[in-house]
Structure formats: structure tokens, C-alpha cells
User: What shape does this take?
Amino acid sequence: MMVRVKILAGGVSEQSVEVDDGSTYGDVLAQLELNPETVIVMVDGIPVPVDEIVSADYLEVLRIVSGGCGPVSSG
Assistant: This one.
């Protein structure tokens, strides 16, 4: 099955990957060399678990951005 993947990570790119029957979304991320701990896989705008079997031919991958706050002033 051919799957189109839109990657939203600081910019936007789109790739197509071939996946075998029974592949998971985590397998797709591995093919794209993306760490599953740093992204969210979305199908039709809904997050899906990376261990779920691929059932969609189009998905979006959103990179998770996190950060702390700067020093707190007591001023």
C-alpha cells in the first residue's frame, strides 16, 4: 500500500512510502527516520497510536515542540 505522508516540522514536506500489509504507523515513522517520541501521527485530524495498523493512505506527522520557561524574577 502506498501512503502519502505530510510532515509538519518547522516547514512542510510531503513524501510517499510503500508499506506492507500489517505495518504500523510506527513502521512508517521508522521508514521516514522519525523518532516516534518526537511526533504525533494524525489521520483525518485525529491522533493515532504508533502501534496501530496502517489503515489510511494519507496521514500527517506533527513534530512536537516543547520547552521550559526562562528564569523567574522575584521583582
Q: What stands out?
A: Residues 16 and 60 are 12 Å apart (CA to CA). The beta strands are 2-8, 12-18, 39-43, 46-48, 58-63. The mean pLDDT is 91. Residues 25-31 form the longest helix (7 residues).
